[in-house]
TrEMBL record:
Keywords: Membrane, Transmembrane, Transmembrane helix, Transport. It comes from the Bacteria. The keyword Ribonucleoprotein does not apply. Signal peptide: none annotated. InterPro entries: MFS_trans_sf. The lineage of its organism: Bacteria, Bacillati, Cyanobacteriota, Cyanophyceae, Coleofasciculales. One of its GO terms (cellular component) is membrane. Gene3D superfamilies: MFS general substrate transporter like domains. It is a multi-pass membrane protein. Its main location: membrane. The chain crosses the membrane at residues 12-28, 34-55, 67-88, 100-117. It is found in: Membrane. This is Major facilitator superfamily (MFS) profile domain-containing protein.
Length: 141
């Protein structure tokens, strides 16, 4: 799908699938329909694990890719830590300790992320400078 459109549209579509999957849990009363919801969440999960890195890698200098990817991981881990420390208070005070509401809020934020993904600018691969590959003497060619 990313080859037909672009990575941003593909990632947005996948996030919308996940958001719909999470939010649909509020209205589903049949256990078999949960499979459809979880398919949406699975599509989003597959995209979350790959496409953000794919969008980022295009704009990084080849010699500093590892450093920037490590910094990028901070922007994944730090919000997870913040939510794990503070969302319990939100659940107690605003959600009546209902875990389903917490999942639905996650779906709402996935939909918001889908729209914000459209603002991400990437550099097409053909515009990037080609990295120089230097082989050592031991490398068999």
């Amino acid at each position: 799908m990313a080859q037909i459109t672009n990575r941003q549209i593909t990632h947005s579509f996948c996030l919308l699938c996940g958001g719909a999957g999470f939010m649909s849990l509020m209205v589903i009363d049949n256990q078999y329909w949960l499979f459809l919801s979880m398919v949406g969440v699975g599509i989003a999960w597959a995209s979350i694990l790959t496409l953000p890195y794919s969008m980022l890698i295009g704009g990084l200098p080849p010699k500093r890719t590892g450093i920037f990817m490590g910094i990028f991981n901070f922007f994944i881990v730090l919000p997870q830590i913040a939510v794990s420390l503070g969302f319990g208070w939100v659940m107690d005070n605003f959600l009546d300790n209902n875990r389903l509401f917490a999942v639905v809020i996650g779906g709402v934020f996935m939909v918001i992320a889908a729209f914000l993904t459209q603002r991400v600018e990437t550099i097409p691969a053909q515009d990037l400078p080609k990295p120089e590959v230097q082989l050592s003497e031991e490398t068999a060619v």
